[in-house]
Amino acid sequence: MNQSVDLLVVGSGFGGLTAASLAARSGLTVRLVERHTRPGGCAGDFALGGFWFPAGATVVTGLEEGGILRQVFDSLDIEVPHTPLNPSIVFHVGGHQLEYSASTERWKADLRRAFPASAAAYERFWDWTHSAGGKVYRIGASLPSLPIESFADIRRSLPALRPEVVSTLPLLFRTVASEMRRLGAEGEL
User: Fold this and answer.
1) Continuous segment of H or E residues that includes residue 136
2) CA-to-CA distance for 114 and 94, rounded, in angstroms?
3) What are the helix and strand counts (H, E) for the chain?
């Protein structure tokens, strides 16, 4: 343990694993330390009733074509076996079961069926989350260099500065609850 390294990475969540892998790939000597018994960070798992459950939304996104994890694995020449999940999540709400489907229209139809009285408001909210989430996802996919500490960081981050990025700045001052109120999507769910 007294061996010197170029980079010490603390934590083996997706960020730590990515940083350590890319640094090692570039030729640095890297040590990765983790206090948990397994890697994964927020995308870890937990046991309940004799079953293991993956935790965190990050376990269901990112490996699709153009996804952020796909970009990292491609840059490392790592093939990750994966199976697309559809539905990716099943919500149990108010005695109803809603499957989060890859098809927006199917998701909306299921929502209308389960909550007919407030479906229009929840569709507006869904459209807003889909639009806002898509913008934020595209910002992340452009891999800005954060935090910005040097001119090189600014140069690497310039591709992320597009008009749609600027349009997301107001989102920094909103909460999901405030958007639900604004769109009338409070109540049944």
Assistant:
1) helix 119-141
2) 9
3) 7, 6
